[in-house]
Amino acid sequence: MSTNTPVIELRNVDKSFGPIDVLHEISLKVRAGEVLCLLGDNGAGKSTLIKTLAGVHAPTRGEILVDGKPTTFDGPRDAQDQGIATVHQFGGTYPLMSIGRNFFLGMEPTKGFGPFKIFDRAKANKIAVEEVQKMGITRITDGDRLVGGLSGGERQSLAIARAVYFGARVLILDEPTAALGVKQAAHVLRIVNEAKKRGLAVIFITHQVMHAMTVGDHFAVLIRGAIAADFRKGEKTREEITDLMAGGETMADLEASIEGYMETHEGHPPKVATAD
Ligand SMILES: Nc1ncnc2c1ncn2[C@@H]1O[C@H](COP(=O)(O)OP(=O)(O)OP(=O)(O)O)[C@@H](O)[C@H]1O
Ligand SMILES: [Mg+2]
């Protein structure tokens, strides 16, 4: 494998649910040490796309390649075993569990054993704290603390540190900064950079253009299930990206059309304000 071979690649992937075609001819690739930002408005197909990447959905057509080799995922666990980690919006953490427990949860061998049979609390805590600190989160020092007491950004960081520790090569982040304030989001963006430095291929899903621009090496804009634009860092401005996400219409046009509608409808906004 040359170092230029994408860690993960989709070629002409379609996904349909019965008669409903959600993804159309999706092709994308991510190399080690790169961040691909996947941008798209609500309903664009982002979640469907990452579920396809994470082994939850099988593509209806097209190919998934890992290290240049066509592969299929026999469920999410299989995708995980092939090095693909997904971190969801709230970090997928359990509030009533300690940091150490949470860090090892689900990553222990479970076949034929109870999940905690081999659990060594002191060791788990030590590793969890070390790993989170290595990612630059030095405020976490006690592995016995409950995850519920951590901030949103710290939870995300914990989930990312866990994925990195357990050997993930592709890190998929589904709107990790959506529910966070400015400082917390900055925290998570720093960790994304850290994961990238360690050579992970990162897929970062967001509709916050500024967050994407902070960490992204390349960008794909998803509109109605198809990649409407694909460009590298520095090739488009924030305004251009925002306009693309609104479906090609400029935001100014969109606002004008909504105002126009309201003028003719006694001040009521349109029932569904989409770019359709
Ligand atoms: N299992 C399913 N069966 C039928 N249609 C589906 C299914 N899953 C998703 N869809 C449809 O696919 C489209 C894209 O949905 P998806 O959840 O992937 O969008 P999204 O970009 O993640 O949106 P959001 O930003 O709101 O999370 C929607 O129209 C949705 O209704
Ligand atoms: Mg979604």
TrEMBL record:
Classification via InterPro entries: AAA+_ATPase, ABC_carbohydrate_import_ATPase, ABC_transporter-like_ATP-bd, P-loop_NTPase
Keyword terms of this UniProt record: ATP-binding, Nucleotide-binding
Gene Ontology MF: a single term: ATP hydrolysis activity
Classification via CDD domains: ABC_Carb_Monos_I
Domain annotation ABC transporter: ranges: 8-249
Ranges annotated as spanning the membrane: none
PANTHER family listed in its UniProt record: CARBOHYDRATE TRANSPORT ATP-BINDING PROTEIN MG119-RELATED (PTHR43790), SUGAR ABC TRANSPORTER ATP-BINDING PROTEIN (PTHR43790:SF8)
Name of the protein: ABC transporter domain-containing protein
